[in-house]
Amino acid sequence: MDYLAATAEKKYLMFISQNYSYAILRPLQREILARGGEVKWFFYGDEVNQNFLRSDESCLETIDDVIQWQPDISYIPGNVIPNFIPGKKVAVFHGFNSGKLNRKGYEDHFNIRGCFDLYCTQGPNTTSKFEKLAKKHGFFLTKETGWPTLDPLFSKIENNPYVDEGDKRQTLLICSTFSRNLSLAPKLYEQIKAYSEQGKWRILVQFHPKMPSELVEQYKALQNDNLTFVETDDVLPLLQAADVMLCDTSSILLMFILQRKPVVTFCNQAPGEHLIDVTDVDKLTEAIDYAFTQPAELMAKIEHFCQQLHPYQDGLSSQRVLAASNELLLSNPALKPKPRNFIRNFKMRRKLNYWRW
Asked: Which has the closest alpha carbon to 310: 122, 49, 97, 58?
């Protein structure tokens, strides 16, 4: 059966809680609309800026509106979705597995919260583990599709606002997670300030949206001809504009490295041979200079890593996600009931102020 053709006249909900989710789901939205499906957005929580919604996009204002609309499939780049929303729930992830550990010492990327019917995985190094988890729990399926977010990454972005053709310096992109224990932002502030004054490289800085505001303001104050601080809901143009990334344990580094570009990390929680990890500030400059040379041995290790992380460079991951979702909907496989999740669902009801049963 042609599961892409089955998109016509079906309803697809984009259930998001962060601004970066716009860019994650828009390639998927484009495929749905091209095949005659209908798309609506819903903003969960208060951290999504509705101004990022485009004029040709439509959102549902309340959870009552969502339930009345009766979506066939919901896509979630976050961790949870209420069980009382109709239709199948498909996890598409908000990033790659960067090795972050939760409070119990487990990789948070593989935390099964009992909310989803299907996990659309990004590549072999996560698919195998989710397949084992699917077999263990029995209430969801796993399908390797690649990540829709990256579809535009493999085509040149025209009129990229972060490319300066007149500046011949190499470009360093600095990104950081918000976690105090993992973030490079407070630890490397003085060093990055020095880089901004030296002017050796052209520097772009972009932080996780949950970064403490005082740190954001500190870095904004560093802006000059050598350093630009960027706030955006779409990081792909930034990734394309840079030659090397400096990062910590943020999953954005994995998006960057898929371009086959080197990444220098500072105190990465799970360093591998594909990264140049530094734990001593005094060795940071040397590491960045080394990364700019793109040494053959490092590039070979990056290529091997990318084949395991996300082997797809065809820009068709959104189509694979859509086909897998439609197959789930139409075949309606016999799965075990999801956990009732009383506490989690109560919290979501309270957050949404929704008490109908």
From this structure: 122
Residue type, 314: D
Please give the Cα distance from 44 to 100 (Å, whole number).
Answer: 24
Distance CA(234)–CA(209), nearest Å, equals 12
Beta bridge partners of 331: none
In this structure, what are the phi and psi dihedrals at residue 88, rounded to the nearest 5 degrees? -80, 145
Helix axes of 213-220 and 189-198: crossing angle, nearest 10 degrees:
20
The alpha-carbon radius of gyration of the chain (Å, integer) is 21
In 218-336, the DSSP E strands lie at 227-229, 244-247, 263-266, 276-278
Pair of tokens at residue 293: 């040379």
Give pTM, 2 decimals: 0.83
In degrees rounded to 5, what are phi and psi of residue 314?
-90, -5
Tell me the per-residue pLDDT of 176-221, one tens digit each, with 9 for 90 and over: 999 888 999 999 999 999 999 999 999 999 999 899 999 999 999 9
